[in-house]
Amino acid sequence: MSRVWRKEYNEDMYHLNELNPVQREAAEYKDGPILILAGAGSGKTRVLTYRIAHLIAQGIEPWNILALTFTNRAAKEMKERVGTLLGSEGQGLWVSTFHSSCVRILRREISALNGYSRSFVIYDSSDQMTLIKECLKELDIDDKKIAPRAVLSAISDAKNKLKTVENFDAQAGDYFQDIVSKAYKIYQKKLFNNNALDFDDIIMLTVRVFREFPDVLKHYQERFKYILVDEYQDTNHAQYILVKLLAGLYRNLCVVGDDDQSVYGWRGADVQNILDFERDYPETKLLKLEQNYRSTGKILKAANTVVCQNANRKDKVLWTENSEGEDIEIYKASNEHDEARFVSNKIRDLSDAEGRPYNDFAILYRTNAQSRVIEEQFMKVGIPYRIYSGQKFYERMEVKDILAYLKLVYNSAESVSFTRVVNIPKRGIGKGSLEKVFEYAEEQGLKVFDALAEVEHIPGLQTKAKRSLESFYNLVVEFKAKAEEGIAVTDLTDKILADTGYITMLRTEGTIEANARLENLNEFLSLTSEYDKNFEAYLEDTEIKEEQNMVILGGFLEQVSLVADIDNYDEVEDAVKLMTMHSAKGLEFPIVFAVGMEDGIFPSSRNTLDDLHLEEERRLCYVAITRAKEKLYLSHACQRMVYGHIQDSLASRFLEELPEGILLKIESKALSSNFASAGTSYQNKKWLDNGSEIVKLGSVKFTVGDKVEHMTFGRGIVMAVSGEGKQAEITVVFSGEIKKLIAEYAKMLKI
DNA sequence: CGCTGATGACCCCAG
DNA sequence: GTCATCAGCG
């Protein structure tokens, strides 16, 4: 398609007129660094996609543009939206996560680094855990005194700050750091010997290649003349440097972020990167997107009021043209079961009265453990739901097992997968025998798997173990041969599951759990066949080298490692969504319930000690509130079971920070000790049908769709409301009869 | 070698 | 309360 044709085309072919003036300026500002501070719901993805379309319309080649995101979800969404604007004109554009972009680069360039090979595998967090435990064992460190998790997170932290083993060692101060330093060294050596990278290596090594090989860097600088970064407030130091290097030549860097939504400090994100952007790039164009298109006025007011309590933030105030909306309801529950009942009753009511689909609701909580009670309640009353956190598909035992087999087939140098599956299903190869194999391999300078070829020479093995190891070896060699012939991943997986006896093992077990595992394996097989169907497109896309053996299998494994959630977010499914506040970031829902608003839970007790952490929790609260479009419910329980113990808890301090006048506070009936005093005034005391009571009312507000009970007319539904406050005229349908009532005089309850 | 019961740790989580 | 890990025994 020619540029000339494009220019002759309607000036607004990319619908720039659909943007507000600031959005449009952000989308059209072409050269040089630009920082877009985009408040929640201000249309930031829209701006990014229009910007990409606009660059291409200006004659920039799509392959000169790189858009970086954190999540696959964000990358996918942006790709789709760019696709809608551009159709096939976007060919060659890179819209991908930091990690997939870096893997693509490393698959080409990693061999520049001494000893690294292009056919590396990627270790996930449980592989990392296995490896670090081995390291601590070698160092003779009791993992009860030093938690492997802590060591791992210290190493990850170091890598995120681009600290090498040597850097770390040089500045290790105390006993713990000293241990981490030693562990880091061994850990890194093990990764290297296994031809494996962990997730942090993916970024760190890309930076290393760029720093050590300026010509390689130059190549990518020339290629990516225009760079866009989404959620810039979530970048860690390594990602910050990566972007800085890539944009170093042309400086056409557009970053979008919201310091108020920085909630990933604990995994290395550094808000300072966004706060300092203007210092790094003095010629920066700064734009603020402050108009919110998502939420009602009251929801926005609540969000603003809370986040304004933070001292360390860029000054901005979100506003909206949307209607004020309904009050924010705060429910005080007696315990977590009461809270769950409140949520399910509300959903039932709104679904009955307003015909709300289940899809409209989301339940947000601070920790995954809180989902259980709500899940149980939903099951009990038959509300369809879907949990969007918790265990990932690829982390399930059976899936990890089959993946370990595949990884071993792909890269037999890899010892973590070897150790995992050598005795699965049970082959009578115990810890003792395995140690002997490892010992022998070490002595002979062999990879463990290759040592099995000489099983006869391994001293101290029992005949039974020897035979088992031998047949295991032959089995895997056979799989390898098939893979090298280019067998489809589905067929290979099938063969492994059958020949190793894995399927038989689960069938024999026959428990409900085993059946669930079999189902998961079926699910896995449908993923492989999906991949087999279009692996050619995938390989082309990731630029995996053709000359490599087992390209097909390698491509599959890479896809699996980089796409963490196949439990993909499905907007169409009609089910209530349950997720943590963290995973809700970037999403929106008509009706949001934020549950467990209790001090100690939210803010989490470990983050209440210092302002830095407390402010991050408060930002999380801001994120949670701003997910809601129309209606927000906040609930807290006076007592809650935590780790098997009943705990008394106070309402979250964040609830205290909410502005008066837009709140409707409701208390569980189970809490009022004195029932007699509950009937003081018919107008001011309200009973909800789940046994809850409104104890504090600004003015009683009725909205279209409210179910009501009138003293004389009985039950009805509000059809229309005109006017405001006490004088409002409310139209209600009672069984067949339509009545117009004035709010002030209507002897009527919301039910 | 592999099962069983006691013991203690337990947040948020992309890739 | 629930999961993972480990010592100790058949």
Whole-number radius of gyration? 29 Å
- Amount of beta strand: 15-25%
Major sheet attributes: 10 strands, mixed
Number of helices: 30
Number of DSSP E strands: 25
| Overall morphology | globular
Low-confidence stretches: 1-10, 674-699
Overall pLDDT level: 86
Helix % is 40-55%
Q: Tell me the span between the first and last alpha carbons.
A: 62 Å
Overview of this protein structure:
- By secondary structure, the chain is α/β, with parallel strands linked by helices.
- The chain has 30 helices and 25 strands.
- Strands 11, 12, 13, 14, 15, 16, 17, 18, 19 and 20 form a ten-stranded mixed sheet that branches.
- Strand 23 and strand 24 form a beta hairpin.
- Helix 3 packs across helix 4 (72-86), helix 6 crosses helix 7 and helix 18 (397-410) packs across helix 22.
- The chain binds a DNA duplex (15 and 10 nucleotides) through helix 5, helix 10, helix 20 and helix 28.
